[in-house]
Amino acid sequence: MTLVRVEAGKNIKGAAARNKGFQVPGFLASVTSAEVKKGNSRSDLGLIFSEVPAVAAGVFTRNQVKAAPVQIDLKRIVQQEGRAVLVNSGNANACTGSGGLSDARKLSRQISQALSIPDSQVFLASTGVIGQRLPMSRMIKAVPSLIQSLSPYGLPLVAEAMMTTDTFPKIVSKEMNIGKQKVHLVGLAKGAGMMHPNMATMLCLVLTDLAVSPALLDRLLRKATDQSFHRITVDGDTSTNDLVLVLANGLAGNAVLDTPQTTGARIFSRALDQILLKLARMIVQDGEGATKEVIIRIEGTRTEEEARTLAMTVALSPLVKTALFGEDANWGRILAALGRSGVPFHPEHVDIHFNNIQIVKNGVSKGPKAETRAGLVLKKPTLTIRIDMHQGTFKTKVYTCDLSLDYVRINADYRT
Amino acid sequence: MTLVRVEAGKNIKGAAARNKGFQVPGFLASVTSAEVKKGNSRSDLGLIFSEVPAVAAGVFTRNQVKAAPVQIDLKRIVQQEGRAVLVNSGNANACTGSGGLSDARKLSRQISQALSIPDSQVFLASTGVIGQRLPMSRMIKAVPSLIQSLSPYGLPLVAEAMMTTDTFPKIVSKEMNIGKQKVHLVGLAKGAGMMHPNMATMLCLVLTDLAVSPALLDRLLRKATDQSFHRITVDGDTSTNDLVLVLANGLAGNAVLDTPQTTGARIFSRALDQILLKLARMIVQDGEGATKEVIIRIEGTRTEEEARTLAMTVALSPLVKTALFGEDANWGRILAALGRSGVPFHPEHVDIHFNNIQIVKNGVSKGPKAETRAGLVLKKPTLTIRIDMHQGTFKTKVYTCDLSLDYVRINADYRT
């Protein structure tokens, strides 16, 4: 499950060969540069192909403004079958009107014809700038080289080709035994800014050779997404392009899983939960400009919904996030954020811990010594802020990052 | 109605004398340095005193975590009478428990005894760091000098003493005739970060010699606040300390206004609206790190509530705000923010203008020329982004600013 940095673009075969951990039987993948951003020769187009028909499940952005590829995928996912995923970075193909939809359909047809598969089994994923048409001639010209270079070692290269402002590719794998069969699971993601529950410029592709019914796969994916991508936030913005897509091709040869109560389903479900949470946390750790990952843990609420509302309000507060960047244990801003969440509570009952250092007891400071010690906790790359509301038994956790100078630099410059 | 920069601390009398525009008959004011922040000799304590009993109305933070002075003011405002306001910067006296409440009561008693007025007619306003107790001995020691230096010219000095991260004092005045009487109106505010509807580290004090019933004053204040402070946002955070307080001492001698339908009430109401909107916009223009003021105008919605939700989602989006800082006419981020607002609409009907330059028509770009011209609009210190949803007849306006590197610098360093 270690992450291997891939030098894309140069010596692809050598790099791919070093990434043998990230293979799933029956899945091939490849990348190329289509210069989606003109003059940029980094690999920006990736293809994943299942040699046999695969069960498909997906979760898509809830943003009403949906990119062309998402609009197409939403229609295709109802069939619950997939054979290929074409992904590009550099251009989101969002807010491009009917022209953008027709571009996406053309690309899909190129892939389905080249691979001799039904067009409806090609899924599309795009990320990058909003509002510009895709450079269709360069992309279509790149398709033959994509097809030719398909290989079992290509998945890490796709993780790299999906990156926009990500600083490292995100790919994790897990193997498990289900019955007597070995089952493989690999997840790829891209993240960075615009991440928020209900997702955001976040693409996640999951490949497995598990044999599973479409209904169960869908159910397990929704549960895993709710526990992972719906618990992270970088800036509260959500994107037009987000998707989590799973293809399961059944080549592991296990008895087809179709109810959640079986041992096999429980094993796979746990593995999927782990993989998605690991990818989600990688996205937060690589949040635009982030210098630290912060886990906001709310305890002692009357409902889980209340815990989530409180946690999200703290996790999204610019004042809390800039204080985290400044490594200032500014608990007053945390209390102020809780106070505007809309959840009723008694400020004088609230306790706050930074890791195991209690900084607030009954709504007031534990004193300068505690603040100094909490300040040291803020120097860690990952820390937990635990807030006990003392009015119930529910709790939740969300994952966020700090708001840094680099977040502003990256997003003020993104298009230029 | 021009703003005069006051050099507080040195040569107070001279500076005050230059500010003759900001006087209201019967109101005296003064400032001093209590070193609320130890070792800092800037003026940080201000007093306003009405020589005769005045009608009082107030609007206070909706944050559940309320600072000690706000808790006290909320009890006193029900009597609708006030004689004095004591305001300090440097320390918010928030999240300070019962000790903080007792500190605030002690200060109030010092003032009421020195001025021989009922303790219940002293209002308190604090702004600054949360969670630290006030330096009571230094503050109490400063009271006699405050009382001795009360003068009709002191209001601009109080505007200066209230500042925290503000870069300029905010004070405006207006005169009007009601019947045959001249009525004076002066408003002082402090703002900067943590500003949001339902207010935020925002203090606003309004003084007038109007004769008005408490009920009408309260009604007009709520209307003016809704059209001004509830329409501005810097970062979505709201504070524990916000308040807008009006004192009306009746010395103008007009026939007491007590219904909104009279000409006099309409004249005063318009003046109050203008003053509060002007102060609110000054706060946005001086938002922490702000380089520009941006008016988000939403048109063509089915309800005003929808217009407000859409406008606020755009006004608070970190991605939109960093693009504004980068002077990038990134309309895709605006559409994406609208799309996650929760308000249903058709993306393909949306038009977006930057001032008079249309950049989006029917949800897609008007092309590179329009984008270049819109980019020029972004170089202006104030601009309007006008968004037409084309599904109704309601509209609204909110005022926001960009999210800059300095916002992060200021808030990462605030306590250190």
List keywords for this structure.
homodimer, 416 residues, alpha+beta, L-amino peptidase D-ALA esterase/amidase, Ubiquitin-like (UB roll), eight-stranded mixed beta sheet, seven-stranded mixed beta sheet, 12 helices, disordered N terminus
Quote the CATH topology of the largest domain in chain A.
L-amino peptidase D-ALA esterase/amidase
Structural domain tally of chain A: 2
Q: CATH homologous superfamily of the largest domain in chain A?
A: L-amino peptidase D-ALA esterase/amidase
Q: Could you say which structural class the secondary elements and strand pairing of chain A correspond to?
A: alpha+beta
The shape of chain A, in one word, is globular
Broad CATH class of the largest domain in chain A: Alpha Beta
State the helicity of chain A in percent bands.
Answer: 25-40%
Largest interface: A-B, 65 and 64 residues
Following the backbone from N to C, one meets helices and strands of chain A in this order, namely HEEHEHEHHEEEHEEHEHHHEEEHEEH
Largest sheet of chain A: 8 strands, mixed
Number of helices of chain A: 12
What would you report as the Rg of chain A, rounded to the nearest angstrom?
Answer: 22 Å
Spans of chain A of at least 5 consecutive residues whose pLDDT stays below 50 are 1-17, 195-200
Oligomeric state of this protein? homodimer
- Tally of strands of chain A: 15
CATH level-two architecture of the largest domain in chain A: 4-Layer Sandwich
